[in-house]
Amino acid sequence: MSMDEKTVATIKPDVLTPAETEQKLETIGVTKANMPMIRAIPLGILAGIFIGMGGMMLGLVLGDSANIPFIAQRLLGGFGFCIGLILVLLAGAELFTGNNLIIAAVLSGKVSWGAYIKNLIIIWVTNLIGSLIAVAVVFLANTGAMGATPGAVGDAFINLAAMKATIPPVTLFFKAILCNFLVCLAVWMSFAGRTFVDKFFAILFPITAFVAAGAEHSVANMFFLPMGYVLKLTGSAVGEKALESAGNLDIGGIAYNLGMVTLGNIIGGALLVGVMYWIAFHKKKEA
Q: Which of 93-102, 186-195, 235-244 has the lowest mean pLDDT?
């Protein structure tokens, strides 16, 4: 049975152009900014859990770091971490870092600055709640006891969290800019895709790149830092060397990291992606 001409005309297997993507970004931004709390809260919590699952996958790879060459470890860890954003964008959830792109709708006058900031605050908080739920589940599942040697995954979580809590501020800030520049590019390209496969590959390479480069993602750190802190406090399924390296891992170090990384993520996502594409394509579209 052949399809009629009208059906054929509606099939567009190619991805959206950048100008079409910018228009779609504004439309999605309006929807997100006006989302009722009854929907935003559970979707924000789910996003935190999803990113935590990506963090769990990265921890499993780092738990076998002695047997994996450095670059292979970084790439494999980044590939595993991709599950977080794949779940956010394809299963459906609200992620703070990606929602920075709502700024395109703000600049077009379709969303107020107040609604934009309110959305970012609500989603940041609910992402934190979801991340802490993921920490509890992964901890109680005794995932830290896994590894090439027993407890190697727990050691990896502690070492990673301790390192993140002590990165110098300038370095931390620019790692955060780099991160959300790549994350928002992944989101931007996924909006351009029409199929699951389009979106999967749009997410895969930028997210793998940011993890491989050691960039800093605020919502991922809502999982990594509390995970390492809980393992440090309980001393369960970890070795003495890992506990020694965690001397500076405390509430102050966690707050320092999340504060600096949140600011850098806003610059990397809102300014370097959202604003730049709005300048490039919104005015041309109006013309």
A: 235-244
Residue 111 DSSP one-character state? S
**CATH number of the domain to which 124 belongs:** 1.20.1080.10
Model pLDDT for residues 154-205, shown as the tens digit of each residue: 889 999 999 999 999 999 999 999 999 999 999 999 999 988 899 999 999 9
Q: Rounded distance, CA 9 to CA 62, Å?
A: 49
Rg of the chain, C-alpha, whole Å: 20
On whether the CB atoms of residues 157 and 227 are closer than 8 A, the answer is yes
Handedness of CA 102, 107, 112, 116 (dihedral sign): positive
Structural domain contains residue 242? yes
Confidence check: pLDDT of 118 > 50? yes
Domain count, the chain: 1
Residues in the chain: 287
